[in-house]
């Protein structure tokens, strides 16, 4: 059951009852010592709860004392809360993801408009989240590969997650902004995709996580827009963007030859690198090197004068082989993602890049698909020695003058790509440098090519000869009269593997430390398991024996702890089963009885608000009488209403004071029917009421008020039986849809 967002109200209880900030000693409240056993604490609690219950104790301080007693019992019977109080003197509930900051410490959620059943028939999930819904295969086949180009923000939710409702406005606002930045968004409903939720390591709802480079990281802070934006920024690898000043700009730009990439400089007035620019750097990290220039620094004044830039708008410059003159420029006040993407995509390659792996070869010289989309690759086979410098510079000059998009210029070092060069120079007496014109015919490596005779030293005659061959090629592609099958290119970037591994290890260790600080043990378990496995292998039987002894001692304690947690509804109870046992307990009332019944309802169920499986709400029967009647009508077991036939015919059934507990997943309900235990003033003999009619009316009015107040007298006992599972269950074949909602006229 999901409450409408606009109708989820604040906590029912008055602020004086809120113990979040109160300082008190639970041991003193219950009158027990720190060494008291759980059975002693429970015994004392029952005695004090009966003594100080507001309905039995007329002391003005009884209500506050009763709440303190309940709160103290909640702390001392929960191992984590008790340990936290003993160590820090802290009595707050500390919920993951900052839930304690949003005021839903107690599980009260109110709906004044309508109840919506998202698990009803075909209309299952929230439409706002439907376009982001992820499935297991989609995550594995699409999200994980795509996470190497852009980060993903994923929310784990469920139909019975009331905390998810509270973060929904923040989530929607943040998603709208993140989508404009190109960040992937996903929503996983554990009710439909439990396998994916388990695979991600999400064991509670709501959970928010990020995926970058196939690695999952969890969000640990309060769910506010600023924290989510910072979380995305922290997901990105470090060193994506280099800060450039007057001192290091030449070093940065001249590294194009070593890195074999164009370099992009962003000039802006903000001191920190914009998130959009970092995301762009992450998306194109394999193609372009990115730098950032803060225009507000005095250390960048020379750069601004050199390129004569307007400081009132962000500016991007692309540098290729010429470090003194930008190859392209873009300037705009509101740079949008699609503009930046188009700008970078048009400048992904150098004018004459070096072929360092097969991926670059495939993109630079694609396989022929259609006649009009032919791409010819002009390839220079050369060397790294100084003696080849003149020819290499002449080849680069020719590539710089090229304006024909059909022609792509590139070069290879023979020593690093020996198998490729052996095929292209086959049966030739010439040695590098040598120019070859080729066209790729299929993905298996087949090419048509033609070597330019005479070698290549960069002279005017050789330039003229090459240009003539290229002009002939435009008119007659059949001049490529040689064919061959090329081997896959060697990956020259493998030599950089160690450096990348060190950077990756550093980032990974940083995240491990962050996880340890947040006590995120569920995520850490795979890593801890790996570490312990390594220790077993390294230290052998000694370590194995030590751990086996300790594990045997801890096993009975672990089982006892699990049993205790299961009994008390501890957070360590299996989260997998908890999803199926969440109950919405709501009170049925009317506009006229709302204040009286809600006050009584809050007192009766307050001691149960710490349960993870119970959530409390109310339903206004004036607006939802048809829905209420439909629920009881659809119940497979007849729910008998104690009314006379004449009364049923004369008026509608009075559902005021009824309490329903609904399990949406298993489709059953438990019903509490009000029981009046107070004094019935109307039952007095008529002769005692021989006064006027107005006096009888006053008596009946007072009686009605008392009856309403006492309708929930036995609700606490009913909730205890509900948690014990001893109440009868009425199974519903299908929850009523919105067509059963009565519009308030």
TrEMBL record:
Compartment(s) of residence: Endoplasmic reticulum membrane
Residues in Thioredoxin domain copies: 108-246
Amino acid composition bias (Basic and acidic residues), ranges on this chain: 554-564
Domain (J) ranges: 25-89
Alphabetized UniProt keyword annotations: Autophagy, Glycoprotein, Membrane, Transmembrane, Transmembrane helix
Pfam families listed in its UniProt record: DnaJ (PF00226), Thioredoxin (PF00085)
Ranges of Polar residues composition bias in the record: 565-575
Topology in membrane: Single-pass type IV membrane protein
PANTHER family, sorted: DNAJ HOMOLOG SUBFAMILY C MEMBER 16
Designated name of the protein: DnaJ homolog subfamily C member 16
Species assigned in the record: Cyprinus carpio (Common carp)
